[in-house]
Amino acid sequence: MTISVPQAQLFFLAFTRIMAVIIHVPVFGGQNIPTQVRIGLGFALAMVLFPWQPLPPDAVTIGSLSYGLAIGREIIIGTLVGFSADLAFGAIQMAGSAMGMGSGFESSRIFNPALGEAGSAFDQILL
Q1: Rounded distance, CA 25 to CA 71, Å?
Q2: d(CA 97, CA 91)
């Protein structure tokens, strides 16, 4: 199987976006998961998702400046997606905290290693 330069460039762009998402998602972005595991997961996801990426038949190699801008765009898009996932996790955590205050479970706060902070029992259940 021959891999062309445009295919390698598109794979690296996909890998860059996936890694930007993985870094910002609370479950994978914490200190509990080693960097090698996160990079391996990003590489595996890029390998799985790459065949669905469209490659035009007349694809040419992207120039250095435009490729640098494309990498920056992928980092920004991946960061925004990861941040929106972080907001969703935060909303669920706030809902669990509000439910815990109403039911009295807030007094027994426990440490959640996935988020890196303490939370109530409802936070643990909802997340």
Answers
A1: 20
A2: 10
Domain ranges of the chain: 5-126
CA angle 72, 32, 39 (to 5 degrees): 40
DSSP tally for the chain: helices H, then strands E = 5, 2
Query: Which three-class secondary structure state does DSSP give residue 95?
Result: helix
Instruction: Please choose, from the candidates 6, 83, 12, the residue with its C-alpha nearest in 3D space to the C-alpha of residue 46.
Output: 12
Question: Tens-digit pLDDT profile for the chain (127 aa)?
Answer: 677 788 888 899 999 999 999 988 877 776 778 889 999 999 999 999 888 877 776 778 888 899 999 999 999 999 999 999 889 988 887 887 777 666 665 555 666 566 666 666 555 555 5
Q: Angle between the 5-24 and 64-103 helix axes, to the nearest 10 degrees? A: 20
Phi, psi of 66 (to 5 degrees): -70, -30
